[in-house]
Amino acid sequence: MMSLKALIFDVDGTLADTERDGHRVAFNAAFAAVGLDWHWSEDLYGELLAVTGGKERIRYYLQHHHPQWLEQQGIEQTIIALHESKTAHYQMLVKDGAIPLRPGIQRLLQEARDRAITLAIATTTTHSNVAHLLQATLGAHSLEWFAVIGAGDVVPAKKPAPDIYHYVMQQLGLSPQHCLAIEDSAQGLQAAHAAGIATLITFNGYTREDTFDGALAVLDHLGEPDQPCQQLAGSCRCGTYVTLEALRNCLS
Ligand code: XBP
Ligand code: MG
Hints:
The protein is of the alpha/beta class. It has nine helices and seven strands, in the order E-H-H-H-H-H-E-H-E-H-E-H-E-E-E-H. 42% of the residues lie in helices and 12% in strands. The termini are close together. Xylulose-1,5-bisphosphate is lined by residues 10-13, 19, 23, 52-54, 123-126, 129, 159, 188.
């Protein structure tokens, strides 16, 4: 029997719908602030999400839409500066309360804390973005709820590489059999699976059509007693809202 010891959460798209109304808006604000006429529409951003990591995403956008920019001297510094500005804009949006948690997140986090299940985060975004989101939604001390926050450039290869999950498990001192990941995208699922971790998916508007083969369950969200979730695939029976008990049963 495998026993559940830790839940490892992705952030963007999983804890909150940060991409469309947060990161995308912040990228556009950073471009506009230096007079660039680049604009990432909701549809274009969906394509750019093929690449994880904000700096990597800007580079990918240039490759496909303005390749001549990549020839310029100092382009790497430009990308870094744009990304820093984007991060500042993103954090202002989050602080303003523009981005709520998805259904069931707060409830499941609380249930895990009550039952002494370890909580951790494995994300592609920066530690500081995670801190802003947690503080704005769950309060000033919520960072302390998480035993490990694996974020951003702490590993060189971002999802779908498994590196961030390996890092988190190493810090936790746990093997994959005792962990369960919660993700929203195919890249996230690939990363967790490549690290040997069973994964539950809560998809969103951008990831609905992704391939989620092998996921424990594929749900529209974690659900609440008064807001039932819908399960589209997976053999783990989650009912109308995901409880720790259901997750424990899925792993055993
Ligand atoms: C989501 C991402 C991130 C964000 C932007 O990662 O791919 O790149 O879109 O964040 P995850 P940064 O779902 O793993 O959290 O600009 O800070 O990279
Ligand atoms: Mg995600």
